[in-house]
Structures are given as C-alpha cells and as structure tokens.
Amino acid sequence: SVPLTVGELAKRLKKEPSEIIKKLMLLGIMANINQEVDMDAITLIAEEYGVEVEQKVEVDETEFEQIEEQDDPDQLQERPPVVTVMGHVDHGKTTLLDAIRHTNVTAQEAGGITQHIGAYQVEYEQKKITFLDTPGHEAFTTMRARGAQVTDIAIIVVAADDGVMPQTREAINHAQAAKVPIIVAINKMDKPEANPEKVKQELMELNLVPEEWGGDTIFVPISALKGEGLDELMEMVLLVAEMEELKANPDRLATGTVIEAKLDKGKGPVATVLVQNGTLRVGDPIVVGNTFGRVRAMTNDNGQRIKEAGPSTPVEIIGLQDVPQAGDQFKVFEDEKKARAIAEARAEKQKQKELAQTQRVSLEELFQQI
Ligand code: GTP
Ligand code: MG
C-alpha cells in the first residue's frame, strides 16, 4: 500500500536503502530510511530500475454490502410493484402471465414446463407492474425462494381442479418467510371439476383465510386460459401495491438483484437483473456478485434496446467479465477501476472462504480415518 517508507521501497526493489536515499536526493527529496515516499516519487525511482509501478486502487470491498444511507424522503418516488407468480407445477402460472401480456410463452416452452424465471413488465390502468414467473416443478426450490425474496407481492396460483399440492405449500412458505403479502388466484375455474371451496378450506389450514370467512387474504377466482377474472386480479394487485407504498429513488446509482444469468456464445455473459433502486444506464461500471463490467447494452422484456432502466425494471445486460449467479446483488459504482477492485477483492475473499472450507473438510476426514 502507498505510501511506502524508504526502507520498504528499497526492500521491494531489492536495493540498498542508501542507494534509494541517493536517488531521492537527486530528485530533490531529502529522506531517511523511515521516511515515507509518495506515489510520484516511487514511480520515478522504480522507473530508473526498469520496474513499472502499477497503481492498485485501494478499496473497501465491504462498501458493496453496506446498507446505503437512507434516501432523502424528497427524492423518493412511487415505483412499480414486483409481483412473483408461484405455485404447483402445471397450475397455470405461465398461462396466467401469457394472458396478462397477451403473448404465448407456454407454447414455446420445452414440454410446457418453466425452467427459469421469466421477468416482464406490463401496464394496467396507466400503472406499471413487474411480474416474475417461477417454475412449479419440485426441482426449482431455490428459484422460488429467490423469487419470493425480491418480490413485493406473491400471487399463489392454485388449480381449482387439483387443490393445494406440495409446491403450493412450499411457495406459501417462501412468501411467508419473506413477509410478502399473498394474493391467491384460484385458477382453471372453467373446468367442470373446479372446486374453489375445497381450495379455500385447504388454504385455511395454512392460515390463509378468505375475507368472506373473516380473514384478510384476497382470493380471486380466475381462468387463465379463458382470460376470466384477470381484471379483478390486476385491481387487487394494484390495491395491495398501493397499501405497501412502494418507493425508490431513481436519481442514484442502481442496485438490484440478478434474476438469472448465462453464457451466450455470441454476447458473452448475459444477466437478467431487476433494478431495485436507482437507475441503471448503459455505460455504468457495475459490480455483480464477484464479477464486474461495464453495461455495454441493455434490453427490455420485449427485446428492445434501452438506454436506462429505473426502479422495478427487469432488464437483460451484457458487458460483464464473468457469468454471475442468480440471486447475486449488483451495484453500480462511479468509476470502473473501483468496480474492478471491489469485484476482485470479493472474488478473493470467496476463494479464501472456499479454501478454508476444503481445508476443514479434509481435516475432518482425517479425524474420521483415525
Ligand atoms: P410450470 O411452469 O411447469 O410450473 O407450469 P405452469 O404453472 O406455468 O402451468 P402452465 O401455464 O404451463 O399450464 C399448464 C397447463 O394447464 C397447460 O396445458 C395450460 O393450458 C393449462 N391451463 C392453464 N390455465 C388454465 C385454465 O385456466 N383453464 C384450463 N382449463 N387449463 C389451464
Ligand atoms: Mg410455467
């Protein structure tokens, strides 16, 4: 670290301190062995010995995790709610989002099973709403947990002909653990075997009591396939969002979470991120988990190139050095050097942690063998 004492500098250059002191004198700097020399002098002296000095940016990598100083209440503005759709496999989550977006994602999915988190933004009654679709298949527990953590509201979809199933329970647990308000959508009401009363009874046992039975959980009967009950569902989403008073400060450097990430052959690392505070812009130096980069391009959920993305917006970004992990936090920094140094420090820390873990494991193994 800078500054160094004359003695330290001599050691690094593998020279006698007296020699360094002479060189400094020629530069007009009178110094003894314990005196500190600044970066400029170090660079000049090192150059004389053919050593190039690389200036390392000193950073405090915990700056990444530090809770931001509170936003000035005057700067806070209303932001769109982030709504995660969760529930058991095949209960109609993606069909519901298709109907809300008037597109047809389900038809394009392999085997009709969602294997990732889809992120979309729609506009209803001039209000934007961000939706995250999650997989219902039992293999995707972490994705559901992650979905619940970044969301403001959870819509639990339960098929009226099937009732509460294991991943319905799991999804409710995630939402409750994340203290997120729940709206229940009883789906497939068009089916002759639909039994919404049975669904309500089953959910009562999980402490989700409908308003008409004296509770405070909103239930909306829908048919995602026929597009029925969607207006009421959207109204309820906006109502709950309004009660939550969701706010963010668009006039600051962006922070948020990685929804999913992959390596694209042509584009390199691609990450879908949710901006949670601030505004993300093309060109921003960014730390994402243990990697970093500069936002080279941003694409919205309609595949359009955009230049900036405000709070609650899901966007795909390219320009990262590495593929981050879903669930990683991201944070924009004012300069790229700092972003790089922080990411490197974080990666190093992670490496040490993993190393410590493997060392401990092998020690335990050793004891077991004795
Ligand atoms: P995963 O993503 O795998 O968890 O499934 P999902 O919950 O997204 O279910 P998806 O939307 O893929 O729908 C599963 C099947 O249920 C499809 O064949 C849909 O057409 C059908 N389906 C969805 N909603 C309705 C509905 O309201 N009525 C009827 N009759 N069928 C529906
Ligand atoms: Mg789906």
Question: What do you see in this structure?
Answer:
With 370 residues, the protein is α+β, with helices and mostly antiparallel strands. Helices cover 32% and strands 26% of the residues. It has a six-stranded mixed sheet with strand order 5-6-4-7-8-9, with helices on both faces. The chain has a six-stranded antiparallel beta barrel with strand order 11-12-18-15-14-19. Strand 15 and strand 16 form a beta hairpin. Helix 1 packs across helix 2. The structure holds guanosine-5'-triphosphate and magnesium ion (MG). Magnesium ion (MG) binds next to helix 4. The site of guanosine-5'-triphosphate (GTP) has 22 residues, from helix 4. It is found in: Cytoplasm. GO terms for molecular function: GTP binding; GTPase activity; translation initiation factor activity. This is Translation initiation factor IF-2. Belongs to the TRAFAC class translation factor GTPase superfamily. Classic translation factor GTPase family. IF-2 subfamily. Keywords: Coiled coil, Cytoplasm, GTP-binding, Initiation factor, Nucleotide-binding, Protein biosynthesis.
Q: Which ligands accompany this protein? A: guanosine-5'-triphosphate, magnesium ion
Mean pLDDT score: 88
Order of helices and strands: EHHEHEEHEEHEHEHEHEEEEEEEEEEH
The proportion of residues in beta strands is 25-35%
Spatial sequence of strands, sheet with the most strands: 5-6-4-7-8-9
Q: What separation lies between the terminal Cα atoms?
A: 45 Å
Spans where pLDDT lies below 50 across 5 or more residues: none
The amount of helix comes to 25-40%
How many distinct helices? 9
Number of strands: 19
Overall spatial form: elongated
What's the gyration radius in Å?
27 Å
Structural class: alpha+beta
Main β-sheet description: 6 strands, mixed
Family: Belongs to the TRAFAC class translation factor GTPase superfamily. Classic translation factor GTPase family. IF-2 subfamily.
Domain Tr-type G: 78-247
Region (G-domain): 81-229
Binding site for GTP: 87-94, 133-137, 187-190
